[in-house]
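Researcher: For the annotation table, I need structure tokens for Phosphatidylserine decarboxylase proenzyme, mitochondrial. Please keep the output clean. Sequence:
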Amino acid sequence: MVYIWLNFGQPTGPFARPFFRRSVSSSGGTTETNVKSTVATASAATASYKGVKNSRWRRYVLKPFVFVQFFLGFGLLAIAFQQFRRKNTHPSQSPELIAKDWEIFYYRIIPFRAISRAWGWLTNRHLPVWARKPILGIYARMFNCNLDEALDGNLENYSCLAEFFRRKLKNGVRPIDAASSVVAPSDGTVLNFGRVTAGMMEQVKGVSYSLGEFLGPAYWRNGPEVRNVGQTDIEYENSLLVNKENDLFHCVIYLAPGDYHCFHSPVDWTINFRRHFPGALLSVNPAVAKWVAGLFSLNERAVYVGRWQHGFFSMTPVGATNVGSIRVYADQQLRTNCTKWALPLPYYDQYMEPSEAGAKEIPLSKGEIFGEFNLGSTIVLIFEAPKEFEFNIRPGEKIRMGQPLQRLSP
């Protein structure tokens, strides 16, 4: 018997054996035997090649992934154990319950931005008509959504979950208080409010964050070339005041997943500057806000700055986990929840002064719709007002868009 080898070069590794072997013989039975041998040899070579591919996949992909998952899981388990011990040792609102730097480091390792983009993609998938009532109905019951207030109460008319998030309300269900100069910009829960003290604001009771870190350098009035180096927190706070006889106040409102997700203007004002911080997308749930100091200064946010009747006014929608995007209707250039490669800088400024080419100020009336979240998140108001200004709300109170935030004198 004579064997003819089809040999292309000098194969190595899994290809050391030839894939094809042809026999020349006058015996039919012997030919059948050789064909079976050829098939068996080719199958063995293919299996060997697949084995090499699998071993490489395990070495370069699976093992690092498992290692990272183990590292992350171990860190989160350590955080949970430490927090459990602290809660059993220290009273509520104790400073010891605030996350340490290493805990925040582990927490920020979680790919919240990628998770949020994936969630945004999922919630924008088209739902067949037959599936809309069951899926959207479960969500509405889970988060206590009031469908009687929706402009369109028929769940079959919402093509995807994201469209239901952004549902509009019927006219008149959120009356705008005419007597109060400041009204609630959205539905939600009041996390905290009060007077800005020494350049610091309370995130929740017992947890504060810096006004300067949250807003960034205050050079929106004088242009980007003016930066006060070495400015203290108190000096920063005073630099925002148009009238030095006034004080600065702040208010933080958390929007839960079941709340109405559009936000409106709380006052009559004019916007002339926007600063976008790409930031992180950590959860802004009240429990996390009590744990991570400076949470709102870490997260993605769009700071809008302008003037109202008493001077300085700013309104900041803050992003969070699973918030696919922040949309501001009058600012189409704003793009949120992008990759770090797309927005590598700490923040991006947009001047809206009439002198800027192609820019224009944004005038807003009290109660006018301003923008929307693609899930729940947070609104932070920081504004200048007379010293006698008083809030008409309580921490933890559920509020509705348009209700008064200011206590009026009798």
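Researcher: And a one-line annotation?
Model: The longest strand covers residues 269-277.
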